[in-house]
Amino acid sequence: MTELRQRQTESNKKFNVDERDVKHMSSFAGVWWDPTGECKALHEMNQVRVPFVRDGLVTNGTPEYWREGQTSDALEGYKILDVGCGAGVLSEPLGYFGAEVVGIDPAEDLIKTAEDHLSSQNADIKVSYSCELIEDHIKKNAEKYDAVVASEVVEHIADKKAFLKSCVEALKPGGSIFITTISRNWFAWLCAIIFGEFILGLLPKNTHIYEQFISPSEVTEILEEMNCRTVKVIGFRYEFFRGIFKFQSNTSIEYGLQAIKQSNRKK
Ligand SMILES: C[S@@+](CC[C@H](N)C(=O)[O-])C[C@H]1O[C@@H](n2cnc3c(N)ncnc32)[C@H](O)[C@@H]1O
């Protein structure tokens, strides 16, 4: 672990990790699982992102909504890698649908919180965590997963192409990559940073940098270069007074994107 930290500090650029950002995220480790605390939005977003992944893999149809405590065997047999899993707020619910979930994150404190929360649940689910970078993980796990999830992560990554390339390498041909993130335009800036962080307090202040945001068409273009075909882009809308997320066709603020790794290699 110390070795990992040392390498990140010595050449964090090479490993595509922003130390300031990881430190900022780690400072919320103690409250990450509090559904009413600073990371509230991640908990509430599960209402849409859990079904976005589950139904994207299983039914391919319009996703249904998710409620806390929901469980089934819908994802039995699926291997899912949750990249940038934080303290496991999305990894765990996916595990309750029977998937084998591996969550990785560069923040040691968040991985510790994820492990502590998982063991406190005493649940019979196949979820495990590792403080690891995707670049290292793929060395032994190339083409292993049916799905790779990067939820609320790409907006924290400087070299998105390199990051997505590593994510795609972890996918089996025919597997799906699921991204959820914030689009880049003035309205997304207003909603996510000004309202989300500074007025409504849905997220900790200074969590996002506008220049790091990315639009669905940019993600699609990058994934296309990696032989992945985008099959779904759906918008998420937050209804502040009801504390709920809803699906919508407008993808100009927050969105989810699913792309499938094609079996035929690009020449
Ligand atoms: C907003 S949190 C999202 C956590 C989790 N995916 C969720 O939605 O509940 C962003 C996460 O990305 C992680 N992160 C930052 N840089 C990363 C990188 N280069 N590779 C993987 N994860 C990274 C942070 O440590 C943090 O846990």
UniProtKB/TrEMBL annotation:
The keyword Magnesium applies. Mg(2+) binds at E152, E155, H156. The chain crosses the membrane at residues 186-203. GO terms for biological process: methylation. It is found in: Mitochondrion inner membrane. Keywords: Magnesium, Membrane, Metal-binding, Methyltransferase, Mitochondrion, Mitochondrion inner membrane, S-adenosyl-L-methionine, Transferase, Transmembrane, Transmembrane helix, Ubiquinone biosynthesis. It is a peripheral membrane protein. It catalyses: a 3-demethylubiquinone + S-adenosyl-L-methionine = a ubiquinone + S-adenosyl-L-homocysteine; a 3,4-dihydroxy-5-(all-trans-polyprenyl)benzoate + S-adenosyl-L-methionine = a 4-hydroxy-3-methoxy-5-(all-trans-polyprenyl)benzoate + S-adenosyl-L-homocysteine + H(+); a 3-demethylubiquinol + S-adenosyl-L-methionine = a ubiquinol + S-adenosyl-L-homocysteine + H(+). Its EC number is 2.1.1.64, 2.1.1.-, 2.1.1.114. CDD domains: AdoMet_MTases (cd02440). It comes from the Eukaryota. Its cofactor is Mg(2+). HAMAP family: UbiG (MF_00472). Component of a multi-subunit COQ enzyme complex. Belongs to the class I-like SAM-binding methyltransferase superfamily. UbiG/COQ3 family. This is Ubiquinone biosynthesis O-methyltransferase, mitochondrial. The lineage of its organism: Eukaryota, Metazoa, Ecdysozoa, Arthropoda, Hexapoda.
